[in-house]
Amino acid sequence: MRVSRIQAEQNRQTVIDVASRLFREHGFDGIGLKDLMKGAGLTQGAFYKQFASKEDLAAQASKRAMESAAHRWAAATAAEPNDPFGAVIAFYLSMDHRGERMDGCPVVALGSDAARQGSDVKAAFEAGIRKYLDLLGGWVGDAHGEDSRDKAMAVLSTMVGAVVLSRAVNDERLSKQFLQAAAESVRKASRTVDVQPGPHQ
């Protein structure tokens, strides 16, 4: 039975959504096309009608994953508009986020994998990382000429690294300590300047 253009596009979006989660759980090379398509409720034969290659899907899925992460940040800051930075720290450096392998930050889940991928995948990550930096720079910068970009880079590196390390160990106490130490470190960094309110203030 022939699939309509509308249904074909819906199927394509479903595959991208599913791949964005399964890649975060298994890595780009940790899951094959057959299982990706099965996860989307489709056959492997439908794949090449929708994507040029697995790398093409990886790039689309990476973009979707970074967009999903940006929505998580937006939701956190909307819930705490008077302390957007604190809200992001609270959810990002949490044991809940540590456990969200399919839905958590794609930079944490796939950062080292992305470094081995092609330029399209890296471009998707770069765009998302730049959005992170723009948000953080607005919160931890000041009006006195300090380079907020450098501070934002240090904060993001600390946050991502802490979640990576917290996931890499079996000891739950040690895992929590990585997250708590990072949270305290980035809070101290923000206290050296006046944290700016969210965009809706």
TrEMBL record:
<protein>
    <submittedName>
        <fullName>TetR/AcrR family transcriptional regulator</fullName>
    </submittedName>
</protein>
<dbReference type="InterPro" id="IPR001647">
    <property type="entry name" value="HTH_TetR"/>
</dbReference>
<keyword id="KW-0238">DNA-binding</keyword>
<keyword id="KW-0805">Transcription regulation</keyword>
<feature type="DNA-binding region" description="H-T-H motif">
    <location>
        <begin position="32"/>
        <end position="51"/>
    </location>
</feature>
<feature type="domain" description="HTH tetR-type">
    <location>
        <begin position="9"/>
        <end position="69"/>
    </location>
</feature>
<dbReference type="Pfam" id="PF00440">
    <property type="entry name" value="TetR_N"/>
</dbReference>
<keyword id="KW-0804">Transcription</keyword>
<dbReference type="InterPro" id="IPR036271">
    <property type="entry name" value="Tet_transcr_reg_TetR-rel_C_sf"/>
</dbReference>
<dbReference type="InterPro" id="IPR009057">
    <property type="entry name" value="Homeodomain-like_sf"/>
</dbReference>
